[in-house]
């Protein structure tokens, strides 16, 4: 899948988020070199949350989404679903950050939500945006 140059930094962040998502899922084998315990996964999640997820969401919400709406992007349902998943991720991560006890069920739920979110952005949103707004993407700055 070819990605417009403006969207490549997002796609690189999304790759890191997908690795995190798979790490958090209960039914996926452990990754070599990544945490295997619940507490280790929690610490890794919080690190990636601050380094990758928050900046990604901020750029989308403050720059990307307003820009594509201004350009005339029509798939409001897709944008609403993506933003709902982002809200879910923020809520779950806030809960995990504040709680001392964490369950593998919480991590699993977050892993699947992150997976759905990234795949919707990459496979649906970006495909539609770059097909219709390639020229406008050239001017977008993050």
Model description:
By secondary structure, the chain is mainly alpha-helical. It is elongated. The mean pLDDT is 95.
Tags for this entry?
single chain, about 140 residues, elongated
In short:
By secondary structure, the chain is mostly helical.
Produce the secondary structure layout.
Elements: H1 8-24, H2 38-71, H3 76-98, H4 104-132, H5 134-139
Helix pairs in contact: 1-2, 1-4, 2-3, 3-4
Order of helices and strands: HHHHH
Helix count? Answer: 5
Using only C-alpha atoms, the radius of gyration works out to 16 Å
State the shape: elongated
Helix content: over 70%
Largest sheet: none
Arithmetic mean pLDDT:
95
Instruction: Give the tally of β-strands.
Output: 0
Structural class: mainly alpha
